[in-house]
């Protein structure tokens, strides 16, 4: 199904970060002026906002278009408010140990499922590629590539369980351990949405 210009721009800003209007136009195959008009309409709807960035020398400041909180809400959030409320209630009624048990059970189930799906991928690069495909299917808008130094990057442009992770950092710890186990590799988180980054990024090297 062909995406509308609005959805294409939302996805572009979500996956590639803030963009100038000309870059948005190039991505959509339209002029920079047409892109600016579309972005202005989206700004009126509260989906995006321009941020002035000083240009080098004496040039006019550039406008970088960002997603707003409303724009981000167009992506899956895993029923954010309900999730956060349930986790808070769980801890209040049953104590932190109950939440730890839930996180551990989820980690074990996820690890088994990932291992089963990646069982036929012998080398690390293939496993990372397969993991990125799984995570994209789960709503994380994941991508992966190899850096010049030979390390591998796994990037997740969206977090559908952000509300749960905000309520309990154990979910983020659990996912990091799951990645290390299923990839049989060293995995370090280099960017983290919960710390204010636009995305979560992981640098992966052979163990």
Q: H/E series, N to C?
A: HHHEEHHHHEEHHEE
- Assess the beta-strand content as a share of residues: 15-25%
Integer-rounded radius of gyration: 20 Å
| Number of DSSP strand runs | 6
The number of helical runs is 9
* Apparent shape: globular
Describe this structure in words.
This protein is α+β, with helices and mostly antiparallel strands and 207 residues long. It has nine helices and six strands, in the order H-H-H-E-E-H-H-H-H-E-E-H-H-E-E. It has helices spanning 5-16, 21-28, 32-44, 69-72, 80-94, 96-117, 124-137, 162-167, 170-183; strands at 48-53, 62-67, 142-146, 152-156, 185-191, 200-206. The strands form two sheets. It has a four-stranded antiparallel beta sheet, covered by helices on one side. The protein has a two-stranded antiparallel ribbon with strand order 1-2. The protein is globular and about 55 Å long. The relative contact order is 0.11. The mean pLDDT is 84.
Characteristics:
207 residues; alpha+beta; 4-stranded antiparallel beta sheet; 6 strands; 52% helix; 17% strand; globular
Helix/strand layout:
Layout (H helix, E strand, L loop, with lengths): L4 H12 L4 H8 L3 H13 L3 E6 L8 E6 L1 H4 L7 H15 L1 H22 L6 H14 L4 E5 L5 E5 L5 H6 L2 H14 L1 E7 L8 E7 L1
Antiparallel strand pairs: 1-2, 3-4, 4-6, 5-6
Helix pairs in contact: 2-3, 5-6, 6-9
């Amino acid at each position: 199904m062909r995406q509308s210009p609005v959805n294409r721009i939302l996805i572009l800003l979500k996956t590639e970060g803030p963009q100038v209007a000309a870059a948005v136009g190039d991505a959509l195959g339209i002029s920079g002026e047409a892109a600016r008009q579309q972005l202005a309409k989206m700004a009126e709807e509260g989906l995006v906002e321009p941020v002035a960035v000083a240009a080098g020398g004496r040039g006019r400041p550039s406008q970088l278009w960002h997603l707003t909180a409303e724009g981000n809400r167009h992506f899956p959030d895993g029923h954010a408010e309900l999730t956060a409320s349930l986790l808070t209630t769980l801890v209040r009624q049953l104590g932190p140990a109950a939440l730890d048990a839930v996180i551990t059970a989820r980690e074990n189930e996820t690890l088994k499922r990932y291992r089963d799906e990646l069982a036929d991928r012998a080398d690390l690069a293939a496993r990372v590629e397969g993991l990125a495909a799984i995570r994209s299917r789960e709503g994380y808008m994941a991508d992966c590539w190899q850096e010049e130094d030979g390390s591998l990057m796994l990037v997740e442009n969206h977090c559908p369980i952000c509300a749960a992770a905000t309520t309990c950092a154990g979910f983020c710890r659990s996912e990091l351990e799951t990645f290390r186990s299923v990839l049989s590799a060293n995995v370090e988180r280099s960017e983290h949405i919960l710390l204010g980054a636009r995305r979560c990024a992981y640098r992966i090297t052979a163990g």
